[in-house]
Specification:
Structural class: mainly alpha
InterPro entries: Oligpept_transpt, OPT
Distance between the termini: 49 Å
Subcellular location: Membrane
GO molecular function: oligopeptide transmembrane transporter activity
Keywords: Membrane, Peptide transport, Protein transport, Transmembrane, Transmembrane helix, Transport
Largest sheet: 2 strands, antiparallel
Number of helices: 38
Protein name: Oligopeptide transporter 2
């Protein structure tokens, strides 16, 4: 059993000043001086000792090469550390990280052995001292995580330019242009977008070009000189411009709201104009921003919050900008980071033409259905399109089942996959058991269906586009849902309370401490850095923090704008819902960001707020749209802002610089995407925007789904939904019980075990140990919130096909190579992920523009592009296949007299 109590790590209780080597990067002079001292000592090191230091962050030692600055820096810390200091650090590491799933297991076992002394390690005294100090110095002066060490330095130089004119200029220009482009294509199916990984490739040469051509014109303010050209384009400028782009580079979170409200095929509200749009957009965009700052103490500054998803961005920017010594050899590989990334990018750019255009059957590799394309059972079990995807090798497309596999920790991937397999078997049992009429519908669909088996036509029960006509409803009937969709709804309902209770219990002390520090920060203006003493936070102490009241002010600003939008315009949504959204989001946002920071698992809020709005506003679909927009995007925006702040933390960019940059980019993004969206609504292709007849495929899938959800949850109502599927409300209870049970076992189970050991006789305790304590101790590593997240990924074609190959890749790279070839993994792993992702993105954009956009699309019509869609698997994906035929009565489900009527 595990004790998950969080404790502060007393590695360094002293105040770090600006001249401490923990904060300031070694300048050329300091490196030379350091090198003169340490190089004299290099001869005293064995090759194994030199290699050990380098291997911690992926740099192999070359006896003929000049030692790198970080090698010398860590070596200096080792040689100046006493054995007592090293022992104290490692003892604290064992306590602080004992239940940290991201802390390397072999490293923890070695540390536990080291603290027992040289005899336990069977080492000579000199070798033992070196091993002890090396482990302590690298953890204390760098990071305990190889992921972090691979993309950061153990020192910082605060004099490197960050907020320069050219960084703002490039970041804002690219953000504005790409926002317009991504907004224009956001309604298209399939979509076209330029993401942050592509932008990094464009930013680097642009920055280097400006560094060459801009004049050194500037002025001095308060002793600081500001110039157009402060010198070479720096890594920090590249990171700052990247953040300006990543924080706001797409159509804003409310774009589908305006489409649903304004277009005649939906609500057709002609009063929707620019004033309302910009007020609502700014409110929603800044909503999550305000709360994100208050969460910094939970998920930015704690060392255990590693945020795996930011590592590829950091690795790519370093490869593009930071010079690298030639000749370094890592597990036999001497290729530079930049060249390795470019090779990966080029390889995937060329390869992606095969699964995406030339031979699409290897993308949707439902090879088992090729044997018997019309075998319904085979298609439902193994199918890529409409089936469950139970297939040992489901794709050869990185974009289907590879992207993200080299970022998410292996323990997270394997637990989520286990839940996907389990939930798939449950869905299969529900379907073949005709659970709540599911066998009369496609197996894995996200559509709603009428009782005649056709897709539900909500217009048949509406009077004015928004209000339910009860008599028409009585004639047509309620909407029904596929087995996978019903299971998915129940899985979400269980996951929310499970995650809330489990994370709250497991991290209670840390949460309590963070809340107290948050209160003190607002009330007494204490430092955000207090209580966090790891190396990277110590380095960040050099920079002025953003006070908590500034973020609280942003939250207040967004609330005021939201109130104006709800009071001034006829959206039929009361103001109290904003405060309800803030309160509920605040409760769920903490476990959500903790999961993302530790396990790369996000917690979407759309189902939660659709459910609540459907309870609050029965028969009012517009209120559901507004509430969902605020609630869902509160989480997504906060996640974006927080992850960018963590990225800036690793890159040693001033928090105030990031705050200013994020605010400016978010503000500009709102005006750009709304302007583009209004132009499209007014001028696009003779009013065919968001219609299925649109020749350019601008069918607005997001708007369609939002409108359908608004009718089904808002018009039909959650009470009727629960009457139709009465088991669903119980899912909240089941999730709560599981979350509380596992939280309590993992937090206090070890105390019960120790109590039993002391109180029971030896024979009696042995029985309890064998049949209860030892089996339950196996679940110390198990995270039910991470596990059950895998059960949520169904419907709409999403199935095991999108996860199986990712499991293989995760095992190879995130487990086997990471454990056995750590230097190679640290140097190349995230660049492999970034290179393949960029290759897919650019290749996909070019292929889409060349062959899919325009009046006539280009398709290669041959067996390799038609075989995967030739059978019942694809027919089911298009909502036209079911296990059972419609009964002779002409309908399935409830009899007309039993239709739920709780309007």
């Amino acid at each position: 059993m595990a004790d998950n109590t969080e404790k502060s790590l007393p590695m360094d209780t002293g105040e770090i000043n600006a001249n401490n080597d923990d904060v300031i990067a070694p300048t050329t002079e300091k490196i030379e001086n350091l090198g003169q001292v340490d190089i004299n000592n290099l001869e005293d090191l064995t090759p194994e000792q030199r290699q050990k230091i380098n291997a911690f962050w992926g740099r192999a030692d070359d006896a003929g090469a000049e030692p790198s600055a970080d090698f010398l820096y860590i070596l200096d810390k080792i040689t100046n550390m006493t054995e007592e200091e090293a022992m104290e650090i490692l003892v604290n590491v064992i306590e602080y990280h004992k239940n940290d799933p991201n802390f390397p297991g072999p490293a923890m076992e070695k540390i536990k052995l080291l603290v027992q002394g040289p005899k336990a390690n069977d080492m000579e005294r000199a070798d033992y001292d070196f091993e002890l100090k090396a482990e302590a110095a690298i953890i204390h002066y760098h990071s305990p995580y190889p992921e972090v060490r691979s993309v950061t330095d153990p020192f910082d130089d605060p004099t490197i330019p960050v907020e320069t004119f050219r960084a703002y200029f490039l970041g804002m220009c690219w953000m504005g242009g790409v926002t317009a482009l991504n907004t224009f294509f956001s309604p298209r199916q399939p979509g076209i977008s330029i993401n942050s990984t592509v932008m990094q490739l464009l930013l680097a040469p642009c920055g280097k070009f400006l560094a060459k051509v801009l004049p050194d014109w500037g002025f001095t303010v308060w002793g600081t000189r500001h110039t157009l050209n402060p010198g070479p384009w720096s890594y920090k400028e590249q990171m700052f411009a990247t953040v300006l782009f990543t924080v706001a580079n797409n159509a804003g979170a409310t774009y589908y709201v305006y489409l649903v409200q304004e277009l005649p095929q939906y609500l057709g509200q002609t009063w929707v104009k620019f004033g309302y749009e910009i007020i609502l957009a700014l409110s929603v965009q800044f909503f999550g921003f305000g709360f994100a700052g208050l969460l910094r103490r939970f998920v930015v500054y704690p060392v255990t919050a590693i945020w795996p998803k930011v590592f590829p961005t950091l690795a790519l920017n370093r490869a593009l900008i930071v010079p690298e010594k030639k000749g370094e050899v890592v597990n036999g590989w001497s290729i530079t980071r930049y060249r390795f990334f470019m090779l990966c990018f080029a390889a995937m750019f060329l390869y992606f033409w095969i699964p995406n255009f030339l031979f699409t059957a290897i993308r949707s590799f439902n090879w088992m259905t090729w044997i018997a394309p019309n075998n319904f059972n085979l298609a439902m079990v193994t199918g890529f399109w409409g089936g469950l995807g139970i297939n040992p090798w489901a794709t050869f497309d990185w974009n289907v089942s590879g992207s993200g596999a080299l970022v998410t920790p292996f323990y997270s991937t394997v637990q989520q996959y286990a839940a996907r397999v389990l939930s798939g078997l449950i869905i299969l049992g529900m379907y073949y058991g005709n659970f709540y009429w599911s066998a009369y519908m496609p197996l894995n669909s996200n559509e709603s269906f009428a009782n005649d088996g056709y897709v539900y036509d909500v217009n048949k029960i509406l009077t004015d586009g928004a209000t339910v006509d009860v008599e028409a409803y009585k004639a047509y009937g309620p909407p029904y849902f596929s087995g996978a969709n019903v299971f998915g709804q129940g899985a979400w309902f269980a996951w929310y309370p499970m995650t809330l209770f489990y994370v709250s219990i497991k991290h209670w002390e840390a949460l309590q401490k963070a809340f107290i520090e948050m209160y003190r920060g607002i009330r007494y203006r204490t430092s955000i850095y207090d209580g966090n003493t790891d190396a990277h936070t110590r380095m960040m102490r050099k920079y002025k923090e953003v006070p908590d009241w500034a973020f609280a002010g942003v939250l207040l600003f967004s609330l005021i704008l939201g109130i104006i939008a709800l009071k001034v315009y006829p959206v039929h949504t009361p103001v109290w819902t904003l405060f309800a959204v803030v309160g509920l989001s605040g409760v769920f946002l903490i476990p959500s960001t903790l999961l993302t920071a530790h396990a790369n698992v996000g917690m979407g809020f759309n189902v939660l707020f659709q459910l609540l709005a459907g309870i609050w506003f029965v028969g009012n679909p517009e209120a559901l749209i507004i509430v969902t927009a605020f609630g869902e995007n509160f989480n997504s925006q906060a996640d974006t802002y927080i992850s960018d702040q963590k990225m800036a933390h690793y890159a040693k960019i001033s928090p105030r610089a990031i705050f200013r940059g994020q605010m400016l980019a978010t503000l500009a993004n709102a005006f750009i995407f709304i302007g583009m969206l209004n132009w499209m609504v007014t001028n696009f292709d003779n009013g065919t925007l968001c219609t299925w007849s649109n020749k350019q495929h601008f069918v607005c899938t997001d708007a369609v789904l939002v409108f359908a959800s608004a009718i089904e949850y808002g018009a039909f109502g959650v009470k009727n939904f629960f009457t139709l599927y009465p088991f669903l409300p119980w899912c909240f209870l089941w999730g709560s019980i599981v979350g509380i049970l596992f939280g309590c076992i993992q937090k206090w189970g070890w105390k019960v075990r120790d109590l039993a050991r002391r109180r029971f006789s030896e024979a009696s305790y042995e029985g309890w140990e064998k049949f209860l304590f030892r089996p339950m101790a196996l679940f110390a590593w198990f995270d039910p919130a991470v596990f059950w997240n895998g059960a949520l990924n169904w419907t709409g074609g999403n199935n095991l096909s999108y996860a199986t190959n990712a499991l293989y890749l995760s095992f190879i790279f995130m487990y086997y190579i990471k454990r056995n070839y750590l230097p190679w993994w640290e140097k190349y792993n995230y660049l492999l992920e970034a290179g393949f992702d960029v290759g897919v993105a650019i290749s996909g954009i070019i292929q889409t523009f060349a062959f899919a956009f325009g009046a006539t699309s280009v398709n290669l019509n041959w067996w390799g592009n038609t075989v995967s869609t030739a059978g019942v698997d694809y027919v089911s994906y298009n909502q036209n296949a079911s296990l059972l035929a419609i009964p002779a009565s002409g309908y399935f489900g409830l009899a007309p007299e039993d239709f739920p009527l709780k309007f």
